[in-house]
């Protein structure tokens, strides 16, 4: 966790007006496309998921006006509050942070996607609520690829067993795997996390393609999304490069 503090952080100016968001979205999208092209991939394979955590509703409205259609939020309470306040807007909500079983009810009520599935208990709790509501949800299974205790997610060894059990929960549409790389500016430490997620996906797809949906890879954030795309990411979750630097320290989201 200390590596990044030692090196200069990229500057992410705060986006306020619709034009600020247009410019940031276009700049990030251009870098996504360039990274994909460099890697010999089709840029159309890479989804940009803007992450609006800590950003107040009055600025989110402008991000939506600039073209954001799906927004990622780490904390369920915050996501639900924003969903309710902005229900008049045409925007879907993706919950990307660790979930306690007692919050499954909330996710089932409003989210269109959940990217941090990491236990059978959560799958069961979500499915029960979703079945009752007659809804389905897209899910990614989160894997801890950095073997840091501060990161949520299954170990690579636990992954196949969970995937084999998920078909029993028919309201959960498995889209692929999600991870957070080690927090470091050193590409030689970050890249292996992304490579590990891809190799896990490839192995499962070879053995039983039905278990992994479209085999998507949600990996890459403001500081490392180009690297993630080079390693096969199909969804980058980008907050600060679109909305501006966050004052809230990351330890709030990934307690160590
Ligand atoms: C906040 C967050 C991101 C985005 O991080 P940025 O540094 O703002 O790009 C991505 N994934 C998860 C799970 C997050 O909580």
Describe this structure in words.
40% of the residues lie in helices and 14% in strands. It contains ten helices and eight strands. It has one domain: TIM Barrel (Alpha-Beta Barrel), CATH 3.20.20.10. The relative contact order is 0.16. A six-stranded parallel β-sheet has the order 2-3-4-5-6-7. The chain has a two-stranded parallel ribbon with strand order 1-8. The mean pLDDT is 94. α5 links the parallel β3 and β4. By secondary structure, the protein is α/β, with parallel strands linked by helices. Pyridoxal-5'-phosphate binds next to β8 and α10. The site of pyridoxal-5'-phosphate has 15 residues, from β8 and α10. GO terms for molecular function: pyridoxal phosphate binding. Keywords: Pyridoxal phosphate. It comes from Gordonia neofelifaecis NRRL B-59395. Its cofactor is pyridoxal 5'-phosphate.
Ordered list of secondary-structure elements with their pairings:
Blueprint: H1 3-6, H2 18-38, E1 47-50, H3 57-65, E2 70-73, H4 76-85, E3 92-95, H5 104-110, E4 113-117, H6 120-133, E5 137-142, H7 159-165, E6 172-178, H8 187-207, E7 216-218, H9 225-230, E8 235-238, H10 240-243
Parallel strand pairs: 1-8, 2-3, 3-4, 4-5, 5-6, 6-7
Helix pairs in contact: 2-3, 5-6
This protein binds pyridoxal-5'-phosphate.
List its traits:
single chain; 256 residues; pyridoxal phosphate binding; globular; PLP-binding_barrel; TIM Barrel; binds pyridoxal-5'-phosphate; two-stranded parallel ribbon; 10 helices; six-stranded parallel β-sheet; alpha/beta; PyrdxlP_homeostasis
